[in-house]
Specification:
The protein is an alpha/beta fold. 29% of the residues lie in helices and 25% in strands. The radius of gyration is 21 Å and the shape is globular.
């Protein structure tokens, strides 16, 4: 049947074969250089030849430019070389399922008459900003019995104080849309992802704040790798034609340099 390889470089790097413990590099200064070495090591330790890689799942961000691009280019090259199926998946959406499991819900909300848990999934965007999306809970089922996260706020980048205002507004709208019998049910917002602790003071102004957890689903070892891969395959099955492209949400820092000035300071200098 072949194996599934996961590659993500949205925060450091995570490389692993589904069903095994991944290799995680948290140092953003060296994770790109170690990426190919870690891929080879992960495949070898799992006991598979490269030809047995059937699926490559890569995190598409949102994340800063350089590291994210390195992971996606590597995944594309590997999929091309092995003939594996390539799937891209954003790193925020699968935070929902892990958050529910983390809360002991075993992947579901449980008793919806006690509490609705919303997940504010974040990733550090640097420059005092966060990548984020707000997802509703309970999850919405489809006709085949599968579940997907529903975004109350689509993926975006913003400053923490602005995110708080947008989340509070979205929660008010969410509460207004609840069925009458659920109108008195508690609604809490869990903040999950890298950067959550750094901006905890600002995020503390979320009105129905639950937990602040500075971790990603891909920090959770073998279990997290499996959650991420399962979520990616579910989304891919729904959207077959989605391109595997990086989600920057912000233009890269690199700019086209200005033209060189003439040595003599006037246009006629090049005719001299």
């Amino acid at each position: 049947m072949g194996c599934t390889l996961v590659i993500d470089t949205s925060f450091g790097s995570t490389v692993g074969i589904v069903g095994r413990e991944p290799i995680v590099e948290t140092d953003s200064r060296t994770h790109v250089e170690k990426l190919q070495v870690n891929i080879a090591r992960a495949v070898e330790e799992a006991g598979f030849p490269a030809s047995d890689i059937a699926t490559v799942i890569v995190g598409t961000g949102p994340a800063p430019f350089t590291g994210l691009r390195a992971g996606i280019v590597t995944a594309k090259a590997l999929a091309f070389a092995t003939g594996a199926t390539l799937i891209g998946h954003n790193v925020l959406e699968s935070q929902v399922q892990w958050n529910l499991i983390r809360r002991g819900k075993a992947g579901t909300l449980g008793d919806t008459h006690k509490c609705h848990v919303l997940t504010l999934a974040v990733n550090d965007a640097r420059r005092q900003q966060l990548y984020f999306a707000l997802y509703s809970d309970p999850l919405v089922g489809d006709p085949d019995g599968e579940t997907v996260a529903t975004a109350l706020i689509d993926m975006d980048i913003d400053y923490p104080a602005s995110i708080v205002q947008r989340v509070n507004d979205a929660v008010h709208t969410y509460r207004d849309g609840l069925r009458p019998e659920d109108s008195n049910v508690d609604v809490v917002v869990d903040v999950v992802g890298h950067g959550a602790r750094k901006y905890a003071d600002a995020l503390g102004a979320i009105e129905q704040l639950g937990d602040i957890t500075d971790e990603s689903v891909l920090d959770q070892g073998e279990q997290g790798l499996a959650i991420f891969a399962t979520d990616a395959e579910l989304v891919a099955n729904r959207n077959h034609d989605t391109p595997v492209e990086p989600l920057y949400l912000r233009r890269p820092d690199a700019e086209v340099p200005n033209p060189l000035k003439h040595v003599l300071g006037h246009a006629g200098a090049d005719k001299a």
